Amino acid sequence: MQIRKMAELYALYKAPQAGIVQDSPELALMRRIAEGSPDDAAALFPQKRQFTGAPPVVDAPWDRFEGKARIWSFAEDFVKRFDADGLEVVPMFQTRSGGRSVTEVVLNFSVDGMIDQVPMFVVGDLGSRGTLEEVRLYCHSGFVPGLTPYRKPLFTPAHLEMGDPGLMTGAVREYYTALHHMPSVDVERILRCMHPDCVFGGYGLYTGKAPEKGLEAMRRVYTGMASYIPRKVGMRYETLIDDGVTGVIEWVHVLSDQGRNELGRIAMSGIAAYMRGEDGRLVSIRICDYAWMEKEIDWSRAGVSEAEARAVNAVSEFPAGVGRKRQETL
Fold this sequence. Notes:
By secondary structure, the protein is of the alpha+beta class.
């Protein structure tokens, strides 16, 4: 079938990464959904999580499904949620580390005899014996019919401050140290940890426009970010999945008064993958979030009020010395 809507992830990275574990549980979940087997999909989850006794969960951009019965309904309705009548799952990248596995997929939905592609992160918290205790899905809101672009933070931070780059290694650590540099992003330091052909993007709809690629393009991207990061918007990363080639980070925003009042920003969840090349520098940056879409949110469908959302992860300001201290100690 002809592709009607092409995913950036497919257009920019047509060759899947080598070495993908095809029976990894989070990928198996998506394939069982595509096969129309909600029973088999739900069977990947235990009745209760091993150590907490809490129910398993699938957190999708449009709802949270707790317990096996709700997960069954998620699997049963998944293809219909995209107004489609069929689905093929194409894995593109996979990162496995520390009891988690992330597969970045292109979902080929059959819609009116054409293919509509959706790029998606599928994050699995792995249980014992090939089971899944939790799955978190990330895709751009524009791919999901009727979805308003609000994704409340999926994690409750222990501290309302930016993440500590010391938890990371190599180019990913260098990138986040420079990103959280006070009083603004250290753009030149970020560029030094990138390969000259670094590609930025992957989770939008492909429009035929050339990708942001190369150091001059990256300079423009991060100079723009330096106007508000980190004084106004900080990233508090809550999971780190790094296999030595790719570092995948799930984060929540932490916002200062400036970020909330001057920019109108609201704390949400997001995810990114940072891939290293053979020389250790970054060759690909793939980010999926709803940044700068706050004005498009329909609060009647967001599940919380605007006032409630604005109060989440809010601080008056970020300490001026935090970024400098981190830079000196790494």
